[in-house]
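Hi support team,

I'm filing this because I wasn't sure whether my run with flavin-adenine dinucleotide finished correctly. The job status page said complete, but I'd like someone to confirm that the output block is well-formed before I use it downstream. Pasting the exact inputs I used:
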Amino acid sequence: MQKLRSKGFEGLKEEIIDKNLCSYCGACTSFCEHLKLEPGSPVLIEDCSLDKEGVLKCSENGTCYDVCPQTETDVEGLEQMFLDSGGTKDELFGVYKKLIAGKTTIKGQDGGVVTSMLLAGMENDLFDCAIVAQRVGGYNAVPTIAENVEAIKEAKGTKYVQCPMVSKIGEAVKRGHRRIAIVGTSCEIRAVRKIQSVLLKEVPQIELTAIGLFCFECFYHDKFVSKMRELFGIELTAASKIQIAKGVCTVTVNGKSYNTKISHLEEMVVESCCYCDDVTARLADVSVGSVGSAEGYCTVIVRSERGERLLNLIEFTGGDVDKDEISRIVRYKKKKVKDKR
Ligand SMILES: Cc1cc2nc3c(=O)[nH]c(=O)nc-3n(C[C@H](O)[C@H](O)[C@H](O)COP(=O)(O)OP(=O)(O)OC[C@H]3O[C@@H](n4cnc5c(N)ncnc54)[C@H](O)[C@@H]3O)c2cc1C
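And here is everything the job wrote out:
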């Protein structure tokens, strides 16, 4: 068998970071002491072990390269490894056991399903912490290890900006957590599965529950802030809610809504999102979004037994799902990505 070339950080830099394809999920830095996540991208702070003679290597290619969601990924293999083999497979949005719409009593971004599942998972001992995105500094977001229900509640709501969620898995393990839930967009969930299949495959005591968020694209924080100033003269710091639905971005400040078509915000879109056609986080245990459901409801795609167990813990009011609407948006995104390439 041909030996794989060791790529390590050098390969990651050349193929992903320097080409502006890094999604800033933080997977590469999560378990590696040689790397640090600087604003905007990961950097090498010391020589990586791949370059040294006679030392234990982290992996054949360098773990940072192997777990990156932007390097080549065997999505079908990961689906087989982590999702329900008995589930139906939809060509556009992947493996699923159940597709439902739901609204809970939690006032989340949409139907509050994600926060409700996180709370129920903690209360019922399915996991002992959850990696969530906390709003900071106006409208920025940082990943946080929530170790109690209060921290989960504080992190509800969508922040449409990059947030390196996966960087926190290593820290959660170091803090002694063994059953960890993580919320993330498609690329982040892809990284979670790669971490599980590469790094954690010999560590069955570490269980990860992956809650995926539908994601068409996400924004650079600073560009978002200046665009809103330019368009409406508003500060995102003061925004009580930002909602993107049906091609329109609505920012609410002091009870007043400011709307703009999403097509007017193209220059704020994170470059790596332009090459990602996974709108529904197809590798998650359970994926949640708003597309396909009525306002105030979530669309929920259950993809594994773990996801089903979690959904079964919460109470919600059901609604209708428009499967065609989800298919349409996935098809549209796939075309956009194809045209870009
Ligand atoms: C960048 C982005 C783009 C999205 N685009 C779409 C879309 O195009 N179509 C669609 O249907 N849905 C999209 N969503 C998902 C949608 O906005 C809701 O998050 C989802 O419907 C869940 O609603 P909820 O009421 O259950 O959420 P809540 O109960 O309010 O919980 C939301 C959870 O998401 C976490 N979170 C917030 N921001 C981030 C982030 N940046 N990265 C990781 N975790 C985060 C929070 O910490 C919280 O745990 C997007 C989400 C994000 C983060």
